[in-house]
Amino acid sequence: MTLRLEATVAARGLDVSLEVADGETVALLGPNGAGKSTVLGVAAGLLRPDTGRVTLDDHELTGRRVVPPHARRTALLAQDPLLFPHLTALDNVAFGPRSAGVRRGAARDRARGWLAEVDATDLAGRRPGELSGGQAQRVAIARALAAEPRLLLLDEPMAALDVAVTPALRQTLRRVLEGRTTVVVTHDVLDALLLADRVVVLDRGRVVEQGPAAEVLARPRSPFAARVAGLNMVSGRWSDGAVRSGGGRAVAGTPSGPALREGDPAVAVFRPRAVSVFREAPGGSPRTALPVVVTDLEPHGDQVRVRAGDLAADVTAHAAAELDLAPGSPVIFSIKATEVDVYPR
């Protein structure tokens, strides 16, 4: 089922055009307040747009006769499983088919099948109060799929779970989402890479970039996507072998992809581990030297991540101590041009 959504919601600053192909999983990324959950609300029928049109497999859900949420054959799964507390896991999963008129026995058979699909067969007789967070979310996934939705909407389904159970649930989702038309809101780069065919990045209610998940996260064109991917990004215009930002930064690099002409909008992307930190500007091979002020220090594996506003560098603990780094320290972030990828914005 193909989803086509064009919607404006003035009160939330949303103006979005989005398409999800039949059987495709699209991940919505973006900072808090970007409009991700609003898009899901419009698709599910929980929120009526001021203007726009929503169609599912060419069947219009908006317009003069708005199709109500229960008649859209969409399923929305959020952080909270929202299971019925008085029903067992089996009857929670059977609720969707029963609501659609399926006989009790057949609905329970379907529910058992979906519980098996999400590795939760042994939970059938338990009530929600007897389930852990991960177990409850597995049951909630089974309940959503048992209703045989034409469109599955997932709003950060693993955000509230313990990190110990997230990997297993992510693998379950990866298996059951294959071939299903799905939109998943997430802040986790692994969710985007492992679950999604395509990524759409929202910022301030607008789509700012989109494309195959691996490509967007390897070559981000928006600050949020760069941050999610763990990359530094400087945006500006290509001039004299460097990307020059409106704020006065100039980052030399190597253009990749389409040729850049003087003055073209461009982005420079480089990894934190490619950044050297100095107290004074170094000499030597061609480098970018950016005067910055340290805003935070945090552990990062066996290194220390030095943050300076929207930029970051990874250094050893010994180097951090030797440089006497602390929030407020003025330093130079230095990057060799060969470590910087430049491409059109």
UniProtKB/TrEMBL annotation:
Keyword line: ATP-binding, Molybdenum, Nucleotide-binding, Transport
Keyword presence, Transport: yes
An example molecular function term from Gene Ontology annotations: ATP binding
Pfam families: ABC_tran, TOBE
Domain Mop: 283-344
Highest taxon of the lineage: Bacteria
SMART domains xrefs: AAA (SM00382)
Domain ABC transporter: 3-229
Name assigned to this protein: ABC transporter ATP-binding protein
